[in-house]
Amino acid sequence: MSKYLAIQQSAYDANMQLPKLGLVLFTFGNVSAADRSLGVFAIKPSGVPYEDLSPDKMVIVDFEGKTVQGDLRPSSDTQTHAVLYKHWANIGGIVHTHSTYATAWAQSQRCIPIFGTTHADHNTVDIPCAPPMNDEMIKGNYEYETGFQIMNELKDKGLSYEDIEMILVGNHAPFTWGKTPEKAVYNSAVLECIAQMALLTEQINPKAPKLKDALIKKHFERKHGPDSYYGQ
């Protein structure tokens, strides 16, 4: 029995959630699942329709982005996943989609403002949008550089990957991550919801104010604070 079966199953299950949640069209997206003890991750093969996927088709890749096991070519975004896993020790799953509303904000090169309590339930800051990478990076190892584009934006904003688990890449699309692939998928769905709500908010009231600090603090801490009381 392959030692990679668990993460292949995990990656498969998470990938199959993307079309169910309306986060992908055709093959526009991927999820990876990491095994830190083995130093590898499983990721969706490139360009394979979701209905044709199976756990054994998930490609095993190390944190340098090299294929360890699998006959199919891994996702074209594999190098981005590898960079993030290599530098962020406490994540176990990464999702990349081109979901409609989050991608629209990315294409607009705008951070998503924190307008309401749905946003504050998950983040205390605007969802950051990394600027488009420079021409030199684009001409180089593009997917590899995308990982650094993401990390540099968080650093510039004074955020850690544990403070916020989602980002927009300017003119491109969203990436999310989490301790597990399931949490990364959850974050991807939440990001899409927040992006849609923010767009509608600005359409209804172009001068809508951001959520005040007291409400941000209350809603975030009731779910995530030391005295949290949301849920069972």
Strand order of the largest sheet: 4-3-2-1-5-8-7-6
- Kindly report how far apart the N and C termini lie: 37 Å
CATH topology: L-fuculose-1-phosphate Aldolase
Poorly predicted residue ranges: none
* CATH first level: Alpha Beta
Task: Explain what you see.
It is globular, with a radius of gyration of 18 Å. Helices cover 41% and strands 15% of the residues. It has helices at 5-20, 78-87, 100-107, 117-120, 135-139, 142-156, 181-204, 213-224, and strands spanning 29-35, 40-43, 59-62, 67-69, 93-97, 129-130, 166-169, 174-178. Strands 4-3-2-1-5-8-7-6 form an 8-stranded mixed β-sheet, sandwiched between helices. It has one domain (5-224): Class II aldolase/adducin N-terminal domain (L-fuculose-1-phosphate Aldolase). Strand 3 and strand 4 (67-69) form a beta hairpin. It starts with a helix and ends in an 8-residue tail after the last helix.
Map the helices and strands:
Blueprint (H helix, E strand, L loop, with lengths): L4 H16 L8 E7 L4 E4 L15 E4 L4 E3 L8 H10 L5 E5 L2 H8 L9 H4 L8 E2 L4 H5 L2 H15 L9 E4 L4 E5 L2 H24 L8 H12 L8
Parallel strand pairs: 6-7
Antiparallel strand pairs: 1-2, 1-5, 2-3, 3-4, 5-8, 7-8
